[in-house]
Amino acid sequence: MRVLCWNSIVNPRYILLSGFWFEDNVASTWINIYGFCNLNDQFRLWEELYELKKSWPQPWIVGGDFNAVRSKKERRGQGDRDAGIQEFNLFIDKCNLVEVPLVGRKFTWIGPGKRRSKLDRFLVDAAWFQTKDDLTLSGLNRNVSDHIPILLASWCINWGPKPSNSLMSGFLIRTVSR
User: Fold this and answer.
1) CATH of region 3-134, choose from 3.60.10.10, 3.40.30.10, 3.40.50.150, 3.30.499.10
2) What are residue 45's DSSP bridge partners?
3) Which residues of 17-55 are buried (b: 16+ CB within 10 A; e: fewer)?
4) What Rg, from alpha-carbon coordinates, does the chain have?
5) Do 100 and 171 meet the contact criterion of CB atoms below 8 Å apart?
6) Which residue in 32, 41, 56, 129 has its CB near the most CB atoms, within 10 A?
7) Does the pLDDT value for residue 12 go beyond 80?
8) Helix H segments across 10-167?
9) Interatomic CA distance for residues 162 and 16, integer angstroms
10) Which of 134, 74, 155 has the alpha carbon at shortest distance from 108?
């Protein structure tokens, strides 16, 4: 992947890279996120990212551990909690983001006992699906971490030598050219 980065923000909870993606001649913004567990801190983070979206209007790809769920179905063994769900979904809608469906796994975090949640995900700007309708997100085997690695892939982008890998703060992004 060849990207010219002209802007970046490094924050304790996210890394933002904005630049030009040479292969597709597309300006884009990539954000790797590690969300707060505390709801009030989450709400402030969603608002901060929404304000950044106004400054960087080019298509976004946001991935990582959001420490938030979008519905009660994304949680198991933790009671009937719906705190934060509405605010997280509102953030996604306001930023015009679409979740890349996770294939092969229902949950991405495994806690003590039978606790499970889907905390890790990729959200992409709706504009990405106009040209990249083949994005897939797979859950891989968990080893040391209490989170499973997630793999975002596109099957039609020429990323250089086959296959090419990059590691973005613990999340493997692998693409395969055809």
Assistant:
1) 3.60.10.10
2) none
3) bbbebeeeebebbbbbbbbbeeeeebbebbeebeebbee
4) 16
5) no
6) 32
7) yes
8) 39-55, 85-94, 128-131
9) 26
10) 74
